[in-house]
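quick one
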Amino acid sequence: MFDLLIKDAEIFDGSGAQPVHGDVGVSGGKIAAVGGKLGAAKATVKAEGLALAPGIIDGHTHYDAQITWDPFVDPSPALGVTTAILGNCGFTIAPCRPADRDLTLRHLTHVEGMSLDALRAGVRWEFESFPQYLDMLTRLGVGPNVACFSGHSSVRTWVMGEEATQRVATDEEVVKMAALVREAMAAGAVGFASSTAEAHNGEGGLPMPSRLADDRELRALVNAMGESRAGVYMLTRGAKTSIPYLEELAAEIKRPVVIAALFHSNTNPTAAFTTLDQVNAARGRGHQLVAQTSCCPLSMDFTFKSPYLFESMKSWKAAMAAHGEAELKAVYRDPAWRAAVKQELAAARGRLVFNGEWDKLFVVEVAKPENQAMEGATLAALAKEAGKDPLDFILDFALSENLDTAFVAQLLHNDEKAVAKILADPNTHISLSDAGAHLTFFCDAGFGLHLMGHWSRDLGVLDLAQAVHRLTGQPATLFGIRNRGLVREGYAADLMLFDPRTVARGPKRRAHDLPSGAARLTTSAVGLHGVWINGTRVADQKGFCVDPKARPGEVLRNFMS
Ligand SMILES: [Zn+2]
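structure w/ zinc ion:
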């Protein structure tokens, strides 16, 4: 007798093969039988008309901090995610000495878009080393399965302290960092993650530590990972790490190099395809480069108290360095500073996060009732009406509302024809949900449902069997995750049951449920009927349905080479 029988489903096995109709039996947390009519079970779920697939593997999350106070990393499992990869971009919290805890959180508060109060109140610090972090997660238990990167910024801070954000490392320091990466790989890291991206700044506009690494350091750490003959090198790429350079590293370490973030920009529409061509040419030469992309348009909600989207600009440094709101407002008023920003925007051509597309920047919510008529208008239109430069207009307006005006910017990846081409390339890794980060700016944790609903069903860019494969079997192979990502006998019972006619991600909404009451954006599933992690049901049609004390997930530590 099975523990669970899911009856009469269209079974998409995650391999990309067309579905078969039948039952799936689950016993002891594993898939015990697949297909045809199966026998009796302690519990039965009728799935006539529904699709059953492996659970989603979210390859790009930032749940490192959140998982220590919220083992279910809300909302991802309620959106079909059964395995989350943590530590992307190298923004980890382990290793960390007690003396560096606040420094680490101050780095994260900015890139994570999470209030420092929430992080200070929330993070459980029952570890110092990376192996101890994995041990803590194992001891406390996790909701979904998790795999963790060894993170460059943490490794650098451990060795260099405050100076990690200020200078290149000495040879001796590089040796110490490499030893930490080896230690993490031996303990079960899924790889090594780093960032050279100009948009990645900590508190006060200080660059994230990994951005200070030179070639010698990066090469040493990536090689330290490669020695383990497992794992991937993941990085979010800035200007100084070209694709040919990354191909050289891939050739050296003979491991996959996962390159974020492949976004299409309307202001430099060919750049994403040039990158993709370079990556595919490298693959043709036998080097395992993988372009990581998104299936969600990148838009951000923001106010001028923390306008992340402008912070990849050199000229914005003065604003990021401001202490307190009075200083910040003085920077915003300064005509010389405004001139520098305008000049940089004019030369942006797709290299920045916000590239001057004022027609895609909207007023969401005004602070003063008399301005209500402006809600929903674009900044391009408002500035034109006022006869002002758009930057002057938006800053003057935000200042007049005490910086409380809420805006939304549609930044990247919103040309559907171009994005379709990127998604249709079978070798791109579709993820970049950034779940757990940028919590006040956006929530793309439901990216998998969006791929299956919007891109597969509505637009026909890839068939459902392919869409499922790209979210399950493909990332399982990429990260070397054993016995997951397929609906196959003996595999873990990580499953998702959904209605292909309605599956989608719901609208985003604001919740005030972070530690210390801080706000975040979240979303619910549409058309999702069930999610199981290692055989335990964690979500039904209404969302989470699991006993909050259950910990069905596994901390994954043993990856295929
Ligand atoms: Zn990231």
